Amino acid sequence: MLPCSPCLPCFSSLPLPPHLFGRYHKEKLRFIKDSLLMFVSPSGLSQIKESVVEKLFFGHQPTPELIGILSVYIVQGILGLARLAISFFLKDDLALSPAQVAALMGIAALPWVVKPLFGLISDGLPIFGYRRRPYLILSGLLGAAAWTCLATLVHSAWAATLAIALSSLSVAVSDVIVDSLVVERVRGESASEAGSLQSLCWGASALGGLLTAYFSGYLLEHLDTRTVFAIVAAFPLIVSGVAWLIAEEPAGENSEAPQVGRQLQQLWQAVKQKTIWMPAAFLFLWQCTPTAEAGFFYFTTNELGFGPEFLGRVRLVSSLAALLGVWLFQRFLKTVPFRQIFGWSIVLSAALGMTTLLLVTHTNRLLGIDDRWFSLGDNLVLTVMGQIAFMPVLVLAARLCPPGIEATLFALLMSVLNLAGLLSHETGALLTHWLGISEHNFDRLWLLVTIANLTTLLPLPFLGWLPEADPQAELPSDTSQELPRDRHFPPIMEVQSSVAQHRNQPFVPEFVPELMPTVEESPD
User: Fold this and answer.
1) Burial 260-284 (b: 16+ CB within 10 A, else e)
2) From CA 72, how far away is CA 171, in angstroms rounded?
3) Minimal CB count within 10 Å: which of 401, 473, 483, 504?
4) pTM for the model
5) What's the pLDDT band for 185 if we cut at 50, 70, 90?
């Protein structure tokens, strides 16, 4: 029996003459036929395709190369499958203290600090005549080897640090390569279109994070940490596989190799301008504040008794909240002046971050709120705010780069911010040690959380270092004439917003977040 059409009345219960039923069914069949033709006709299929491209790919054509780029970002998100496994491996298998874990995370983040060096190497040293594809293949193989070592050979803190650093290096190198491809795509975007590919790449990495967020804890309830590492070791090989989708012309024998001396001179000409180094200094001050995340992770597992499966739920909520934060920024806040959005972000981040004290001091129990529900709700709010606060950092860094050396200077700015993140981990480790916070002593964790939040307010007096409007408009008019355009690779942002520093579980590296944006280039 044919289903009733929503556009035609149902006569099945009416006392109609028999000859009307035949006409009714003909009308119904005609309606269904017209509906099907609308979808299968060339014009209908074209409309569906345009809608998919516009809604799913933000207007970018899904070429094999774009699919390859997005696959790399999805894998970066999927690597979050090992986030909790790393945390419990360091805490339980290696029996490290919170301070030791925080220090180890800082060391493992070193590859992100020297990412511009990878750009110089890949640009100046082609492998078999190619500057992109071979390095992408090698990065995948290196990542697979690092995770395999964690699954089989690592039995000490130093060996874990080395293996974790190698996995970090793998992601950093692949990051450099795909970012170079993204730069080429966004170079011609108008100001109104800027950020669409950035959001698409964020979404790809977020998709990978969403796919594995809950299972990062679920697997630990049924498997040991080394088995999880063995599973994760397979995913970097996808990066090596999709490298063949990248469309790359061989670097000819007569092609001009980059001259390091000339590039350093160009960088110096740009960095010595106040319109560049003052905003960069502001971002560094904001991101180098200490983090309490290692101590907080031990508190949630040892004191509150949160298991891997529940922490997987928290990660899932965090991934969804981060997507919401990105959407809110993209939809409502991307045109807000830098000084205004940074000022409000810093104040609100510090204020909301203090709500963690309710959990640390067990005040939430006096209010009748269960630890788990409070943790989920608090994490949801803080993650949304953290992503909203984080997005302007990326946008400002990209807009600071003058025409001619956008990619190289952006890579340098990101390395400076990653250095700030490294200092954040190391100062957090020192504070954790000085305050006597250990695996079972959390008496002064409230003080560590308070310090971590209040220190984020320190950059407020220096808001004047930020540009009032578009920093591109404040650059000297002759900058683009002095600096010939380079082709170096800007990395994506690896730092995390200060509001979220004490909330995220330690992972390797913490500079590989679940949501990784790509650079947006300023139009020529």
Assistant:
1) eeebeebbebbeebebbbbbbebbb
2) 9
3) 473
4) 0.74
5) low
